[in-house]
Amino acid sequence: MGDVNNLTNLEKFQRGISKHELYRENDPVVNSLLSDMANNKIVKVYQKEGGTQIKLVIDYENKDEALFKPMRFPREQQTLPNHFYFTDFERHNAEIATFHLDKLLGFRRAMPVTGRTLNITTEIYELADDELLKTFFVSPSNNKCFHGKCTYYCDTSHAICGNPDTLEGSFAAFLPSKEMGPRKVWRHPWRRSYHKRRKAQWEQESDYCTLVRDIAPYNTGRRLLDLMDMSVLDFLTGNMDRHHYETFRVFGNDTFPLHLDHGRGFGRPFDDELTILAPLLQCCVIRSSTLETLLRFHTGEKRLSDAMRESMASDPVAPVLWEPHLVALDRRVGKILSAVRDCLSKTTSDDSELPKSIVVDGSRRDS
Ligand SMILES: Nc1ncnc2c1ncn2[C@@H]1O[C@H](COP(=O)(O)OP(=O)(O)OP(=O)(O)O)[C@@H](O)[C@H]1O
Ligand SMILES: [Mn+2]
Question: For residue 84, what pLDDT is reported?
Fold first, then answer.
């Protein structure tokens, strides 16, 4: 199908997705794709249906697409104390930062995301489809605003407004279409209850992990270790909103889970939500390569915060994160490592076998 030289960077990226990861380490197509999304001409904008908060699909002149989440708040705004994880607003910069973090941790399971500042008149209003256009209005201070249609926060009092005419947002590279790359949706075993008074099973049973590890697909292959990686990523960012995850059907069950939907991370830099680490705390396993990476960031020359600062410096909307969030990353690496240490001391004391908690296998490329 067509000459490889005529492919857009997004198409090249999509063709490079493997059973093990979205892209290869140091693959130059990633930076080219980020730059395309940040600079290419936009020709059409419409709302993505589904999901709880507003998201726009951006069509570029070269037919590539991106998923846009608008900025709602300044970087310093924290999660409102009386909001649950499921009513928290989404933060566009959390999508950008989590892509960088996923990459630095060596997972490569998150789609590339860049920041970009748009002109709300010429790059949204004038390119919007009729549905979206209907939700535009001019605010009392004469800024152009829209609210779209969705389950939460799509009304006049939660509108997205130009400032006065610019709007910042995150642009995530589009996944292959459902036809090209159909995906399977999985319920996360450590999903929260999404109810203000109810608790989930894992919150009430301390040996919940023994149940999980006996059932497919967690009883074999890489999947349980992938959930541990996901809980590491989510604990570092403070994301409590991991209800489902998706895999590509073509790769079967022994493939990586996509890291999608990170808009609710980076909301509380001064608290570390240990319950996000529950999978790791309850199962006491972690992939050896992940442990090595965390140790390197903890004891090595470059701390995780430094690596993140460096990685995000070239983003068009840098600085992407408020400084306290970077400080939190280093502190949380320390907490993950002490959780692993606790696991070790638990499992080595009862029998002389290899400590179960450490992790064993990489099972990333070849198993
Ligand atoms: N980069 C992407 N390209 C294409 N589709 C995507 C991308 N990221 C996410 N999606 C799809 O869009 C849907 C909604 O995305 P996302 O989860 O980020 O939004 P959300 O409003 O938080 O949704 P929800 O309320 O269901 O959690 C997801 O089910 C996912 O399948
Ligand atoms: Mn979500």
Answer: 87
